[in-house]
């Protein structure tokens, strides 16, 4: 692997580890190289970001390197965050939140199986609003992330705990069939 590919691997790993960042020791392990080589690659990548005037930068905090946004762009991101907080939840997000609230913890695939449509965007929206959070990994193949509701969810809906959710009304066979037909029509 040449240095360009190594820097691309470091960039991707820094993105994956987000705020936690990576220590030089972790980068050495990742690339199977020594500390001098790893440090040279990180510093070179850091200069690449500066030289190319990118919207991200690499910083070192407490012996870890992190990929972060540039401080001069903070007002733009704050504006975007405020706009996102002021918008109401989409119908898809409400459906996903309801499913997770009643059947938690569950994976994205399990949510999608119930809804019959992709739910990644809705889950990300709920994570950003701190209404759901990761609750570990499911045992088995792929070890998919599990999601559950948060304390903010309880605060938002005025619940002491999850057992205070209203019970789901039992449907007649006819009502179940109507709902099933409704979802089939929406998919077609």
TrEMBL record:
It is found in: Cytoplasm. GO terms for biological process: cell division; chromosome separation; DNA replication. Its main location: cytoplasm. InterPro entries: ScpB_csome_segregation (IPR005234), WH-like_DNA-bd_sf (IPR036388), WH_DNA-bd_sf (IPR036390). GO terms for cellular component: cytoplasm. Keywords: Cell cycle, Cell division, Chromosome partition, Cytoplasm. Homodimer. Homodimerization may be required to stabilize the binding of ScpA to the Smc head domains. Component of a cohesin-like complex composed of ScpA, ScpB and the Smc homodimer, in which ScpA and ScpB bind to the head domain of Smc. The presence of the three proteins is required for the association of the complex with DNA. Belongs to the ScpB family. Participates in chromosomal partition during cell division. May act via the formation of a condensin-like complex containing Smc and ScpA that pull DNA away from mid-cell into both cell halves. This is Segregation and condensation protein B. The gene is scpB.
């Amino acid at each position: 692997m040449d240095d360009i590919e190594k820097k691309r691997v470091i960039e991707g790993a820094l993105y994956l580890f987000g705020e936690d960042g990576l220590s030089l020791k972790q980068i050495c392990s990742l690339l199977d190289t020594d500390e001098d080589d790893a440090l040279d690659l990180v510093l070179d990548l850091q200069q690449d970001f500066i030289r190319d005037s990118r919207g991200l930068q690499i910083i070192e905090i407490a012996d870890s390197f992190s990929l972060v946004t540039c401080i001069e762009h903070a007002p733009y991101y704050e504006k975007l965050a405020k706009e996102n907080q002021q918008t109401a939840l989409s119908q898809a997000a409400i459906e996903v939140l309801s499913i997770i609230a009643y059947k938690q913890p569950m994976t994205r695939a399990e949510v999608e199986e119930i809804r019959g449509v992709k739910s990644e965007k809705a889950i990300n929206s709920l994570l950003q609003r701190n209404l759901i959070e990761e609750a570990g990994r499911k045992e088995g193949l792929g070890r998919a992330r599990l999601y559950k509701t948060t304390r903010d969810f309880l605060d938002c809906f005025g619940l002491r705990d999850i057992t205070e959710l209203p019970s789901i009304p039992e449907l007649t066979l006819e009502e179940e069939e109507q709902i099933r037909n409704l979802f089939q029509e929406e998919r077609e």
